[in-house]
Predict the 3D structure of the following.
Amino acid sequence: MKYLTDYSNIFTRYDLNIEVARQAARKVSKDELLQKVADSVVQGDDEEAAKLTKQALATKSPMDVINQGLIPGMNEVSRLWDEGVYFLPQVILASDAMNAGIALCEEAMGKAMDKKGKVVTHTAEGDIHDIGQVIVNALLNANGFEVINLGADVPVDKVVEACRVNNPVMVTGTALMTTTMTAFPKIASQLKRLGLNIPFVCGGGAVSEEYVTSFELGIWGKEANQAPGMAEDALSGDNWQAMRGKWNG
Amino acid sequence: MKYLTDYSNIFTRYDLNIEVARQAARKVSKDELLQKVADSVVQGDDEEAAKLTKQALATKSPMDVINQGLIPGMNEVSRLWDEGVYFLPQVILASDAMNAGIALCEEAMGKAMDKKGKVVTHTAEGDIHDIGQVIVNALLNANGFEVINLGADVPVDKVVEACRVNNPVMVTGTALMTTTMTAFPKIASQLKRLGLNIPFVCGGGAVSEEYVTSFELGIWGKEANQAPGMAEDALSGDNWQAMRGKWNG
Amino acid sequence: MKFSSQMAYKSADEMIFGTAIKPVKAKRGLVFGGGHVIPEIVPHPRPGSEKTMKSLLREYERANGDALERCVIVGHPQLLIENEHIFQMTHNPKWGGEIAAQSAKQMDDYLQKYGLKAAYRATIADLRKPDMVNMRDSDYTREVIESFAECAKYADIISIESMGGKEVFDHAIIRNDIAGLLFGQAVLGGIDMEWMWNQIVAIAKKNNCIAGGDTNCAQANTAMFMAGGFISKDVPHTLAALSRAICASRTIVAYECGATGPTKDCAYEDPIIKSVTGVPISCEGKTSACAHADLCGNVIAAVTDCWSNEAVEYHDMFGGTTTAVFTEILGYDVAAMNASIDLGYQKEFQACLVNSDKYRGCHGFMLSPDNAWQIGKALVDNNESLYSRGKAAAIKCGELMLGDPKLKLSVFEKESLEGYMKDMKALPDKEADFIDMCLKKYSKVKGFQPKAYGL
Amino acid sequence: MKFSSQMAYKSADEMIFGTAIKPVKAKRGLVFGGGHVIPEIVPHPRPGSEKTMKSLLREYERANGDALERCVIVGHPQLLIENEHIFQMTHNPKWGGEIAAQSAKQMDDYLQKYGLKAAYRATIADLRKPDMVNMRDSDYTREVIESFAECAKYADIISIESMGGKEVFDHAIIRNDIAGLLFGQAVLGGIDMEWMWNQIVAIAKKNNCIAGGDTNCAQANTAMFMAGGFISKDVPHTLAALSRAICASRTIVAYECGATGPTKDCAYEDPIIKSVTGVPISCEGKTSACAHADLCGNVIAAVTDCWSNEAVEYHDMFGGTTTAVFTEILGYDVAAMNASIDLGYQKEFQACLVNSDKYRGCHGFMLSPDNAWQIGKALVDNNESLYSRGKAAAIKCGELMLGDPKLKLSVFEKESLEGYMKDMKALPDKEADFIDMCLKKYSKVKGFQPKAYGL
Ligand code: B12
Ligand code: B12
């Protein structure tokens, strides 16, 4: 078969046009050991992170290991992801590593560390397309939120009940099918009825901005990487109207 | 350029597969002159129809010329059209010829002939796509209905007023644009408010069955050639629900 | 204005998609007819969005933006976006202008951020319905002209689907009346276009904008859609084909007045136009199934320079919004065509497109490059008047259809065509006589005002 | 079941669209892979229509009917209609059966009235989500099997998109974990398919129905869609390409169990499958933009026997309903391909399709016939186990990507790929060792039940 040498009239590799110069993660700690802890997070190496956390805990307080090692490492990863240097798997692996370290610190403290706030996540009733949700979970986690992960195919009542019990700053839903996204307005209206005016971010392939902004509480989530920013807004007290104004329209 | 000799793997000429054997119009009158009148209608020759009608009127009553010459000729055309032998232009031309003859008969009678019933037709406000309506007018006309033709781009109020004044057996609307078809439910609701439960047949490219059957009075018209049959039903007393049941769903 | 007197192409063999004798450059690096085919996407706003200028701006921002974004996602190098004005955009000339400005800005951003080359075509709505307004002297006429002026400031290309002669055509098409088609399409249409296009070309020049072209959508497309597919019985396909041949006499007037192309996508007469004028053309076929069905889905691409979807209402599909979806499809359509050009296989590829439909139906047959060229030739060889060249084109088209045994015609279609041929041969030779005859014959056609055409 | 040990095609050059080594005949005169490409339209019902069997029957009556009608309107000679079951149609096996019966009846009518040749494919929904049910022993499992039995009575073809290994894959794909892909896709997927497809083939035989095929939609397509276009940052395209190569090891199991094709449209691995098995395949590319975007819109048609839109929700467009619109487009797509075959230009046409995308992205590259064939060869040359052949396919795919300088990779993509290659080379040689390793490594993956795979 004949092949061309110049393909410029046929396609453009925009990914190469916009390729982001690689950057190393910055140094985040003056303490050599804590910097190593952070590095293990940046490298997404959960075994290494656990090992180094154990070492660090021998000389440092669990909160210091968390706040000067694990979390600063994760923050670097988030920054590099925001700037387009890192890709999703790097974020997920870093988050796994951070969590491995945090688990050990919590063990050492004898109690769970304080998270920024709770977020309830779920995939709609009848829908098993949960990869979008899995990403959202990981990113929220990586950004210090406590994720109440209800999983896939979750009945409306179960979502509402989880909101009532946990009183999260935000609740999210994912739906990839036009036949399942209809659960979202039902959830919103039950939350309203219970006086739970929790911002309800809905995303997933089937779901359009028009649809989500057609019911109260609803805010449309286009990309999973918006989830942490949205949760920050909710945490800082923005109500659903303010959030919708900012993220949609 | 290279050409094939056998195109059977590329397209199928279904029109040839279903080509209808040609048939001549049948004889409709024993009277030689009236048969000629009918023939002139079948041939769609309005000048000839006028000439022969004048001749016939010298010896026959206007109602005889109409009922035994002009209308039977037109009926033959309708039959051949129904059977797929004739095409639209033949129907329109025949209808023009019949109307030329009828005008002369009416002149001779000194009054308009009785029509089967009135039908108000229009194209929606803001819409100038009126060819569908033009066909509907011609077919209704050809089938003996009195057409109150409001033309294109007709305001909602004008349609409602025409219905109030004329009390037709049926009203039709044509819309080719999604932005103009929204006039139909408005018309329907005003008619309801005035207690005018007239079957309202809506057609035109933009208009779907779902849309038309979503408001009361509405019956969806897929093809212009359904219009005469629908008008017959309305004339025989079917209400809009019965008509919708029959023609839609 | 001078009637074209020779063919731009010496033979149909020289005509190929992607290359025109007179290529046209737009801003941001696009060249139409410069060697490769460019996709043209046409979004249509959703009902309700036309309520305010703000809501309509937002609607186009998304619809056009999604098209640009999809190019970047899948790697399509070039895009032409056409916004066909809805009533409100021309009725309020500022609206059309603002939307053009916004779109140009979006395209500048995409060029800068990603290197995507795009261009914008504003197609003004011809609000002048001949049986309702005076074509040359009405508020609508003034709004149309003002809209051109507003849009020419920002758009790369301006176009229109002009309406002259429509009142007579509508009467004639459902009556098998070939004289009415010649009068409505070729004569009245041509006269109105000359009046209109001299103004459009002047506006374009003043604004350093491209005067694209016109289409006989209002008439030849109506005939084609009424003829429909293989189960319609509204208008014979042979008559629709003659109507198409006739309309070349008027559509070409735009280029005779100075328009340069890219022509309007829905002008199925464009292959004929290209054979005569050499301007880059835009065509639509299979990928405009979203807008209408036709029987020449592939062959119509055989000599095109842009490839369009005609119009798609903006809404969501599983794969994204309709404008994104159709941009992706059009872009892949042209990627294969452009690959064929760069590989040197364009003639083989063209043969596949032509063989797909040349004998599927009358339109595919007459718009096949060889026949389109011959019809163009009849046009220039009989260029005494709008009438004479329109009639010559139609007669040639009829002869071709009757002369090629591979084009199967039903008995009805064939007899109809023989009738039209007889009718045409019985018509007066001179345009003046023909006009006299028609002024009488159509004096009672609803709304026909000879004065509005200077007659 | 025996693992394939040789290639059906001696070289990639012998592979062409429209012709398969083992053509398959359906009722009503259709032959898949018998010399010409057949369009495959897939309608999806609107939300709400699934409420009752009656409303769903009506929805499919229209959606399928519009597709058949459009063929007659524009002259397309052949059509395959696929109905992909929504949840309710498999959960209530009678529903799927009734819809198949109704569709067969519609097709009989169109054959009789117009001479249109059509066939019907029922794709059962695999309701067994591995992390939620026991794959071999659950109510859902029984419903799936029962649905096959119901549909096989009326359908020409039965298919499924099976789910084995999905739980491990989901965990692995977002962690750059190539071992997880090999285990989830090749090993667990292959084991589950053998269990499932022996049953499907038996049901098909009993009912004189065609056992179509399977697809790794649940995994390789998820990877491909996550990799996305040129601005996504979820999964490297190189990893998605490896995931595709790996999945050939499991998708081919259907044919090793006796399925004959036409394969499932969304199985982008099909060109590899065809190179090994010679069964007719169904592919989707540009004209499935209605369902998703991809970077191999044309090249994926290079060796296909059916051409599909993947799925389009039934609703109105200007040009008719979506099923009519996409049937028209698909039909014209294949009309040009079939014209190229009959003209003897199929190799030139194929080159245009391939050159359109071979270097657009990793998927287009590896699915280009030459590379697909080589990956198939690696598969059969290493056919000791599901694992060994999946790994060999992936390594070959990686080598090809790294070895062709025309395939540009970003620094990130390239480094990722080098990492995966290193990881693969470090894996155990023997499947048994690999499985042992994975049973440990993935023991905590949510819902993973080794027993459900007989492990
Ligand atoms: C992978 C896949 C599957 C996998 C799902 C595996 C899984 N665990 O998720 C399997 C094979 C199991 C599957 C099964 C089915 N599928 Co499926 N599937 C897909 C596919 C190919 C990709 C979906 C995907 O994972 N995308 C990648 C993820 C990351 O995207 P995402 O979830 O949309 O998330 C992004 C955003 O939406 C956003 N987001 C999502 N959630 C949230 C939340 C917040 C808070 C925020 C801020 C953002 C956000 O972030 C992400 C991007 O950053 C799509 C095709 C497509 N065009 O989407 C079809 C698709 C969704 N499937 C479809 C269908 C029909 C089915 C089946 C019914 C098929 C069948 N007949 O068997 C079954 C349904 C089973 C069921 N009851 O749910 C249809 C749905 C049609 C519809 N709209 O109704 C689609 C569209 C395919 C098609 N074109 O026909 N499918
Ligand atoms: C011809 C045409 C025109 C002509 C109209 C001439 C005329 N006097 O009608 C002209 C050129 C003037 C025109 C102008 C415009 N048009 Co226009 N036009 C068309 C076209 C090409 C064909 C329409 C047609 O005549 N079809 C043939 C007739 C016979 O079909 P029909 O009316 O639907 O009737 C059939 C059935 O519906 C039924 N029926 C109809 N009425 C009734 C009633 C009853 C009782 C029954 C039983 C049956 C029935 O019977 C007929 C079949 O037997 C369509 C393309 C398309 N896909 O439809 C675009 C189209 C309708 N136009 C369109 C647009 C956008 C425009 C413009 C805004 C373009 C512009 N930018 O200038 C302007 C609008 C002007 C205005 N304000 O109305 C869009 C509409 C989009 C939308 N849905 O909103 C379309 C769909 C083109 C497209 N794909 O984008 N147009």
In short: DSSP finds 17 helices and 13 strands in chain C. Chain C has a mean pLDDT of 97. Residues 178-207 of chain C form the longest helix (30 residues).
